[in-house]
Amino acid sequence: MVFGEPDIDVREVSSNGSADEAMLQVEIRGLDVYDPTTGELRTSALDSGDNPIAAWFLDTDYDGDAFFVRHAYFTGAEDPYDKLRRAIKGVIAPEAWDSVNSTVSRPFPRPRSGKIAIKVINHYGDEVLKVMVLR
How many Å apart are CA 106 and CA 96, to the nearest integer? Predict the structure, then answer.
């Protein structure tokens, strides 16, 4: 399988209801997947249950040289954290677990660099990087 750029939505969200504290949030809505053995190209909408994404990472202030994982999300499998959650026996709040098993990022401040980068990894370990310039 070969996959292309993810379909990304970046939106402004308010923090504490104040426009002065507006934050950004990223949502991955889908991903194009090409199967070279069949020649089939399909668009996978993540809300359809056809999720080719195992993990995705977000650099909320991409400098163009190095990708720094500032947010990490794991959307693969039904509950990718079950064994880890049981091993640490409730040390981490349930809402924290929910925030990393998501196609929507936690809010973050507007980047000083004006750019963000999203790295998506599929279930085979293939990855793609998408850089977005924000205005």
Answer: 10
Residue 83 contacts residue 93 (beta carbons within 8 Å)? no
3-state secondary structure of 132: strand
Tokens of 10: 């970046």
71 residue type, one letter: H
Are 134 and 115 in contact by the 8 Å Cβ rule? The answer is yes
Alpha-carbon span 124 to 13, nearest angstrom: 33
Residues 104 and 82: their CA atoms lie apart, in Å, by 20
CA nearest 32: which of 21, 46, 20?
A: 46
> pLDDT tens-digit profile of 47-77?
555 567 888 999 999 999 999 999 998 886 6
**Cα end-to-end distance, the chain, whole Å:** 34
Q: What domains appear along the chain, each with residue ranges and CATH number?
A: 2-133 (2.60.40)
Q: In angstroms, what is the C-alpha Rg of the chain?
A: 16
Look at strands 2-15 and 127-133 and give their pairing. Answer: unpaired
pTM greater than 0.85 (yes/no): no
